[in-house]
Specification:
Layout: H1 3-12, E1 20-24, E2 32-35, H2 36-42, E3 51-55, H3 57-67, E4 72-77, E5 80-88, E6 94-100, H4 103-117
Antiparallel strand pairs: 1-2, 1-3, 4-5, 5-6
Helix pairs in contact: 3-4
Length: 121
């Protein structure tokens, strides 16, 4: 199916538990992760989707933690839950950032970490 067909299918069966989608095509070498909202906005007939999985906040956390276990931890504090993210500053220094435990922060960290692993073409 194509991305637009999947978006229409998901639109007919909304489920507020899910914030994210992991999808893949048969010829792509890596899964794509997006917020469900972003996927719905950008879905097109050109995207070939071989399969997908909807993820909630905890499912995306599990994915991020599985892919980068040494770089992310979760902490509960008086003012909420946070992700402690250790990453390279780009200048060879390790930086520790505290990010809110939100769908937007998880997606930002995941995208930035995946971009660092992908070879530039």
């Amino acid at each position: 199916m194509n991305g637009l067909e999947l978006a229409r299918k998901l639109e007919k069966q909304p489920d507020s538990r899910y914030n994210f989608i992991r999808w893949w095509s048969e010829d792509a070498g890596q899964d794509e992760y997006e917020t469900l909202e972003a996927f719905m906005e950008t879905a097109s007939e050109e995207q070939q989707v071989a399969g997908y999985e909807l993820l909630d906040l905890e499912g995306m956390w599990d994915t991020l933690n599985r892919l980068h276990p040494d770089q992310v931890t979760r902490e509960k504090r008086l003012n909420g839950e946070f992700i402690v993210w250790a990453h390279d500053s780009g200048a060879g220094e390790m930086v520790i950032e505290d990010c809110p435990y939100t769908p937007e922060a998880l997606m930002t960290i995941l995208k930035l970490e995946l971009l660092q692993e992908r070879p530039l073409t």
